[in-house]
Design goal:
- This protein has a 6-stranded mixed β-sheet, with helices on both faces.
- α5 runs antiparallel to α6.
- The protein has a single domain (47-70, 89-257), classed as P-loop containing nucleotide triphosphate hydrolases (Rossmann fold, 3-Layer(aba) Sandwich), CATH 3.40.50.300.
- The protein has helices at 8-12, 61-68, 91-101, 117-128, 134-144, 159-172, 189-204, 217-220, 243-257; strands at 17-28, 35-46, 50-54, 76-81, 84-85, 102-105, 177-181, 209-213, 225-230, 233-239.
- The chain is globular and about 50 Å long.
- The chain is of the alpha/beta class.
- The structure holds adenosine-5'-triphosphate (ATP) and magnesium ion.
- Residues 19-256 form the ABC transporter domain.
- It comes from Kitasatospora indigofera.
- This is ABC transporter ATP-binding protein.
Length: 258
């Protein structure tokens, strides 16, 4: 372990870091096909904070989310949820930790096609054998506006409707950390605004940590901090982002690229 790597004891003293990656490297493939999707990224995701992750297509955003959530493993470096380093867990303990503490909205939704909307939403709770908080579930279903579709299956829904189910599923168990990969990418601005409001509530009212990938400066404006990735590296960070400032930042970056 190098001097720069965090130790469990250090993180235990900093309980407000809900998730963290330290010196994270992720390499896909070998030799000529090697892709360095994450190139020494260190970032904290604080509790009770909403973080937007931005950057061009292929910059490593989804990879960062997957590795931070323990859905994929790093090639080097470490990923932490609270004071737990994910690399120290066996498969069973990692599955349990994910089930109990993490909600994930996949870029491709990943709904279970044979389950109804309601069953998809309560799936994480059912797997954990936990009783749902009915009032919270009702308010989720209300916000996503699919109360009349609860007994439909994902194949019978539009892309935007499936995305809303995926957001409700990630929030159903009120996990400590919610990773959402472009959760508003398929939504109109009104529905998108409602989903963003829901994520904001999880942060403000429940003290949860929300990490959201987005290409949309307006969506990033809901966050407390915005991180910018390029070529697998963290290239900038903005506190209290507004849509205008994020847009300016993106334009400046595009000018530099061209
Ligand atoms: N399973 C994989 N095998 C090989 N390369 C991969 C794999 N997954 C991702 N990559 C590569 O890693 C890099 C980062 O991919 P990633 O999906 O993290 O990008 P992203 O920022 O989420 O992009 P987008 O905005 O298009 O979703 C890309 O060059 C991609 O081609
Ligand atoms: Mg992606």
């Amino acid at each position: 372990m190098s001097a720069t790597e965090p130790r469990a004891t250090t993180l235990d003293l900093v309980p407000d870091v809900a998730a963290r990656v330290a010196d994270a490297v992720k390499v896909y493939g070998v030799g000529a096909t090697e892709v360095r999707a994450l190139d020494h990224v260190t970032v904290d995701f604080p509790a009770a904070r909403f973080t937007a992750v931005m950057g061009p297509s292929g910059s490593g955003k989804s990879t960062l989310m997957h590795c931070a959530a323990g859905l994929d493993t790093l090639s080097a470096g470490s990923a932490w949820i609270g004071g737990t380093e994910l690399g120290t867990l066996n498969d069973r303990r990692l599955t349990l930790l994910r089930r109990e503490r993490i909600g994930f909205v996949f870029q491709a939704f990943n709904l279970v096609p044979t389950l109804t909307v309601r069953e998809n939403i309560t799936l994480p709770l059912d797997l954990a054998g936990a009783a749902p908080d009915q009032a919270w579930l009702d308010s989720l279903i209300d916000v996503i506006g699919l109360g009349d579709r609860l007994h439909h299956r994902p194949g019978e829904l539009s892309g935007g409707q499936q995305q809303r189910v995926a957001v409700a599923r990630a929030l159903a168990g009120r996990p400590q950390v919610v990773f959402a990969d472009e959760p508003t990418g398929n939504l109109d601005s009104r529905t998108g605004g409602e989903v963003l409001g829901l994520l904001r509530r999880a942060v403000d009212e429940m003290g949860r940590c929300v990490v959201m990938v987005t290409h949309d400066p307006t969506a990033a404006g809901y966050a407390d901090q915005a991180l910018f990735l390029a070529d697998g590296r963290l290239v900038d960070r903005m506190d209290a982002p507004t849509a205008d400032r994020v847009l300016d930042r993106m334009k400046a970056f595009e000018r530099r690229q061209s």
